[in-house]
User: What shape does this take?
Amino acid sequence: MREKLRLLRDGVQRVDAVTPPERDRAVDALRALAIVGVVLGHWLVTALVADGGALRAASPLGDQPQLAPISWVFQTLAVFFLVGGHTATKGYASARARGTTYGQWLRTRLTRLFKPVAAVLTLWTVAAVCLLLSGAELDTVHTLVKLALSPLWFLVVFAGLTAAVPLLTRLNPLWPLAVVLHVDLIRFGLGGPSWLGWVNVAAAWLVPFTLGAAWTRGELERRRAGWVLLAGGAAATIGLVAWAGYPASMVGVPGAPVSNLNPPTLAAVTFGMAQCGLALLLREPLRRVLRRPAVWAGVALVNLSAMTIFLWHQTALMTVTATGLLAGRLPGLHTRPDDLSWVAARLIWLPVFALALTVCWAAFRGYEQGPRRRSGRTSRVVRVHRRRGRPGTQEARRA
Assistant: This one.
C-alpha cells in the first residue's frame, strides 16, 4: 500500500513538473467543471420510468418545478463553448503562425473530436438490433437510443463552430445575440413558425464561443468584463422568466410546451452569458487552487478523458437502470420522479452511476487517448504535458 501511495505521489508530482509555467490551468479547470456539470445534471434530471414492460423518459422537473434551480447549477454547456472558443481561436492562430494549413489544422481537431464517437455508435447500433430481436418494445428502444446518442448534437454544433473559426475570430458576440433575439420575437411574439427556432442552435452557442474568441484577444482580462456578463446576463434571465413567459428550467422537460434548450432560446443565451461571466471571475481563484499538484493532476486526468466521460455517461445511467430491473422497480431508478423522496433516492444512485461510468471509461478510453503503453513507459498525461513544454510543440498540441 505504501509503495502504491508513493507511486501515486510521484505521478502527481511528475504531471505538475512537466506542465509549462505559462500554461493557463484555469482553462482546463473550467472545461473539467463544464463536463462534470453536464454529467451530474443529466444523472439528476433524467428518469427512466418502468411502465409495464416498457421504459419511458421522465424528469423530476416536470412534476416538481420548484427543482428548476438544479438546472441552473448543472447546465454548463455555455462554459464549455466559452473554453472551446478560446482554445480553438488560440490554436488556429498558433497553427497559422507555424505555416500549418487550415485543412490540416481542422482535420487534426475534428479527428480528436469524433474518433471516440465510433465506439458509441457501434455499440448502440448492435444493442438496438439485439433489443428489437429480443422482443423489446420499439418505444423503449427509441427512448434508450435517443438518450444514449443525445450528446452527439453538441459535437455536431461544436464541430461546425470550430470549422468556422477563421470567420469568427473577430465576430462580436452581440451579432449572434441579436439573431437569437429576433428569432424569439418572431416565434413567440409574432406567432412565427416553430421550425425557425432551429436557427438558434448555431446562433445561441455562437455567443459563448465568440466570447471565448474575445478572451483570446485579451478583451475579457479585466474583472469588470466578468461582472458585466454575470450581472447583465442574470438580470436579463430573471426578467425573461418572470415577465416574458420563458420556462425557469434551463434544460428540456418532457411534455413541456417550450424548452429553453431544444432549441435554445434567448433565456438560455442570457443565462449562458451569466455563466461565462462567473467563469471569467473564477479564473484567478482556480489558478491559485491548481498550484496544488494533486488538484492539477485530477483536472488533467478529466481533460484527457473529457470526450469519453461525455459520450458514455448516459450509457452508464441506462446500464444501471436496466440491471436494476432484475430486482424490481427500485426507488429513484424506475419510479416516477414526482416527489422529493425520488430526489433523495436518486442521490444515493449517483455513486453507482459513477462506478458504471468508470467501467465504460476503462473499456473505451483508448478511442480518445490512444492505446495504453507498456508499464515503465511515461504515462500519456506526462507525455502530453511534456510535449507542451518543449519549444515549438506547446502550441502545436494546444492547436
